[in-house]
Amino acid sequence: MAKTKYTVSEYLEMEAKSEIRHEYYDGEIFAMAGTTMNHNRIVGRLRNLFERKFLPAGCDVFAENIKVEAIKNFYYPYPDVIVTCSPEDRAGTYIVKRPSILVEVLSKSSATYDRGFKLRRYKQIDSLDYYMLVSQNEHYVELYIRTDQPEIWTYQTFDNERDVIHFEKLDLEIPLSAIYENIVFIPDEETV
């Protein structure tokens, strides 16, 4: 049996009526799994940290339920956290098209997908300066940073509670301890 292919407009119409979220990739639609409490806690902390900095500057911060246009008419995922300062996005309704920061909180089932497939597609977003991967099982953050040469990205990791993550282009610092405040790590076999 052949798979059904959907247009972006068909996907957006179905998604507006759906009770669960779906990602769109090249005409196919994929249901998204639920999350753990630690995943939700980390997303909430990051959203709050970003909002303190960016809301007064006229930017927006979204968490989990807003799509990003990673590749126009081709790939529409739901990052865990999105920061955008684009006037086009501030006037939008359902889709962020010019994010500055994208964050994914890793689970055992999503880590390879987030580090590989999503990373390659997110790097194609011209406005994106930072892609941040955050473990929910240990103090560990990976940060991809676009350099002044748009096709070249640097990579940093943070695994010490005293580490501070620097978003130099956006004049922001986030202590690793603030992301993981009051988080009790759960062994891998108990997380999705």
Explain this structure.
This protein has one domain (35-190): Alpha-Beta Complex (tt1808, chain A). It contains 5 helices and 13 strands. It has helices at residues 8-17, 37-54, 87-90, 111-122, 176-179; strands at residues 22-25, 28-31, 60-63, 67-68, 75-76, 81-84, 95-96, 99-106, 130-135, 141-146, 153-158, 164-167, 172-175. Strands 3-6-8-9-10-11 form a 6-stranded mixed sheet, sandwiched between helices. A 3-stranded antiparallel sheet has the order 2-1-5, with helices on one face. It is globular and about 50 Å long. The model has no long low-confidence stretch (mean pLDDT 90).
Question: Which fold name corresponds to the CATH topology?
Answer: tt1808, chain A
Please give the CATH architecture. Answer: Alpha-Beta Complex
What portion of the residues fall into strands of 2 or more residues? 25-35%
N/C terminus separation: 30 Å
State the fourth-level CATH superfamily: tt1808, chain A
- Kindly give the count of domains: 1
Q: Which residues sit in consecutive blocks of at least 5 with pLDDT less than 50?
A: none
The count of DSSP E runs of length 2 or more, i.e. the number of strands, is: 13
CATH class identity: Alpha Beta
- The secondary-structure element order is HEEHEEEEHEEHEEEEEH
The largest β sheet comes out as:
6 strands, mixed
Per-chain topology:
Elements: H1 8-17, E1 22-25, E2 28-31, H2 37-54, E3 60-63, E4 67-68, E5 75-76, E6 81-84, H3 87-90, E7 95-96, E8 99-106, H4 111-122, E9 130-135, E10 141-146, E11 153-158, E12 164-167, E13 172-175, H5 176-179
Parallel strand pairs: 4-7, 8-9
Antiparallel strand pairs: 1-2, 1-5, 3-6, 6-8, 9-10, 10-11, 12-13
